[in-house]
Amino acid sequence: MTNFNFRYASHPADARKYDTNEIREHFLIDNLFSKDEINLTYSMYDRYIVGGIMPVSKTLKLETIPYLKSNNFLDRREIGIVNVGGKGKISVDGEVFELDKKEALYIGSGCIEVLFSSLEENPALFYINSAPAHKKFPTKKVNKQNAEIVHMGDEKYANKRIINKLIVNSVVETCQVQMGLTELLPGNVWNTMPAHTHNRRMEAYFYFDLEEGQTIAHFMGEPEHTRHIFLENNQAVLSPEWSIHSGSGTANYSFIWGMAGENLDYGDMDIVAPNKLK
């Protein structure tokens, strides 16, 4: 079964006026994983799709949705996938890829049949990001052995972390989609600080591996008009091109960042100093 919903883009001047419920309604994605279902959110931010796939008792097929007006999901799209659960399997037009937790798969446009299944009692949780694509690139699996790994941060500022660049142009050829996985080390809680914006790209954040009963405050909005959303484990948030995207948890956690837009330059960002935020 495939469930889907639609999100319009918000003007920053309008977002300043949103109350708590409106902010959550427009930007929070809180229903990503449900047993034997595919859940998709189609956003007007660069027509980005954020979704979750949880195969438990059967194989799930990625099917088109009405917003795409296409025979197959990937007719004019590409997709990045990261497994955040138990070991799983993805079949792409008959070619099989096994993904352990925190491994990724890129699938280029034009592929027709994409099937998802779990390989152990603990089900796979496939987190997906998709964007329009103008060219077909080869399907490629990425694990930590062929990812670009960067150690950043300082315990002094509670932001010591490992950035795993999985689906980026230095590792995988893509049209738009870029994805990576950041792991906060124990005792560290801040991500993406100093904060930044990048008007050339939108972004989506997915938070996971958060201890039960804990929470994450995700900060968004214009640097001089910030807002926050409290998130639980396995929830995501849309980040407009005009918005910062930073967060702090009550315990350490991991998160997946995904992007699409004007360019593939990971370092293209406009830094905002911590003491300049309002």
TrEMBL record:
Pfam families assigned: KduI
Cofactor: Zn(2+)
Keyword terms, alphabetized: Isomerase, Metal-binding, Zinc
Cofactor note as given: Binds 1 zinc ion per subunit.
Catalytic activity: 5-dehydro-4-deoxy-D-glucuronate = 3-deoxy-D-glycero-2,5-hexodiulosonate
Taxon lineage: Bacteria, Pseudomonadati, Bacteroidota, Flavobacteriia, Flavobacteriales
SUPFAM superfamilies the record matches: RmlC-like cupins (SSF51182)
Role summary: Catalyzes the isomerization of 5-dehydro-4-deoxy-D-glucuronate to 3-deoxy-D-glycero-2,5-hexodiulosonate.
Residues bound to Zn(2+): 196, 198, 203, 245
Family: Belongs to the KduI family.
Molecular functions per Gene Ontology: 4-deoxy-L-threo-5-hexosulose-uronate ketol-isomerase activity
Organism: Flavobacterium jejuense
Alphabetized HAMAP family for the sequence: KduI
InterPro entries assigned to the protein according to its UniProt record, in alphabetical order: KduI, KduI/IolB_isomerase, KduI_N, RmlC-like_jellyroll, RmlC_Cupin_sf
Listed pathway(s): Glycan metabolism; pectin degradation; 2-dehydro-3-deoxy-D-gluconate from pectin: step 4/5
EC number: 5.3.1.17
Name under which the protein is recorded: 4-deoxy-L-threo-5-hexosulose-uronate ketol-isomerase
Domain of life: Bacteria
